[in-house]
Amino acid sequence: MSVKDKVIEIIAEQAVLEPGDVTMDSSLEDLGIDSLGLVESIFAIEEEFDISVPFNANEPTESDFDITNVQSIITGIEALITAQKA
Amino acid sequence: MHRVVITGAGTVNALGHDVPETLEAMREGRCGIGELEFQDVDRLAVKIGGQVRGFEAEGRYNRQQMSLYDRFTQFTLAAAKEAIAQSGLTFSGDEAARSGVILGTAAGGVSTWDQNYRLVYEEGKNRVHPFVVPKLMNNAAASHVSMEFNLKGPSFTVATACASSNHAMAQAFQMVRSGMAPVMITGGSESMLCFGGVKAWEGLRVMSKDACRPFSANRNGMVQGEGAGIFVFEEYEHARARGADILCEVIGFAMSSDASDIVMPSKNGAARAMSGALADAKVDRSDVCYINAHGTGTAANDKTECAAVADVFGPHADSLMISSTKSMHGHLIGGTGAVELLACIMALRDGVIAPTIGYEEPDPECALDVVPNEAREAKVNVAISNAFAFGGMNAVIALRRM
After folding, report:
1. How many secondary structure helices (H) and strands (E) does chain B include?
2. What is the CATH number of the domain that holds A38?
3. What is the CATH number of domain B252-400?
4. pLDDT grade for A1, boundaries at 50, 70 and 90
5. Could you tell me the fold of the domain covering B4-241?
6. Strand runs (DSSP E) across B152-295, as ranges?
7. What pLDDT digit, counting tens, does each position of B66-95 carry?
8. Does B331 participate in catalysis according to the annotation?
9. Which of A37, A43, A52 sits opposite B129 (nearest CB)?
10. Domains in chain A: how many in total?
11. pTM for the full model?
């Protein structure tokens, strides 16, 4: 399974949706994922890919990790995998 | 001062997953203590406990709830659901704003601590689930009850070790009696039956390896249990106006502190709590027919408690009944007073005294009628429930038949 498909699966599970309902331009808010759901998703992503995601719930916009929408999250994770697995 | 009555009761414990099952087991003198089942139990010297069996979180709670509910919260929510359903109450508007939740627990989410310490220390992981803190905190159960039932008034959690539930219920009683709240949800829960939870108790060398035999000369220690007991405390006129079924009346309480030793009980502290509860309830000692004992099955507690009862009740001590249901469900630590209150309700409402099972040999230092091994029928007008905690903190509640 690609990184993209796996991330969509994690987000869909958190949102209690089918993966097909998660589009690349959806924001987490659009999908009904609140702040607790977000930190739980990040935990699941870190576990899945064995990476560390730089994210502080107190200042989400200050992190290098862009959570604007599903696409930006996937791009961020791919970059972190490349950097941390290099 | 308002009168306070109990209009709902709920429980999960080793004897049953609800009140009817639990009372039936108490009437039959059934033992819920057995072989413990959890990871690494083979590394324990103490391998028995009053474990709740067949209580599956799956199916009861959804995925998100399960990630937030420690076992002590799961027990609490199931018991609260039963109690509030029995009361027939729903909470909205001003009533919701004034009604709250006060629960007791000695240690909150022990198995959450245990599982996550195992992950980071034993398995070397460096990342834990984000909900570890909201799951393990001592007030998690009270908070989830408040959210589930829309209770927006005074809510908090009390931790006084083995007296936690009695202290919590005393606070709830006080709030309803004073007119501060029309209804309070109260009681307590505990779930320490995991490797770390039992290992810690094992260290103190007060645990029995075979059975809990309160007041019996051959008793050899306490046995841990787990579960929850939850009650609806309601202002009497409020309950009457809506035609609620009243289980019994709460008529008084007292608390005392031994101020002497961190683990050894004091006869004087226990006696002051019992006599204080009678004074608060304005009942004569001769009115008390039944005492639900703290009765842990340790050498120290049982003889001290019996001596305190003799001091408080004088000659009447020989004509009242005192039993310890810990012999059946184990010691629920911070939840114990709540589950034991059910035995008082059964005595008052059904006229059935729960027995002290496992009783084998009379102890001259516990020479009271401990209702050995078999339940007994008796008309009971007033009952008291004792809880005496490590740290010397005691709380006794007095109840009356309606």
Report:
1. 14, 14
2. 1.10.1200.10
3. 3.40.47.10
4. confident
5. Peroxisomal Thiolase; Chain A, domain 1 (3.40.47)
6. 156-158, 183-190, 227-235, 248-257, 288-292
7. 999 999 999 999 999 999 999 999 999 999
8. yes
9. A43
10. 1
11. 0.95
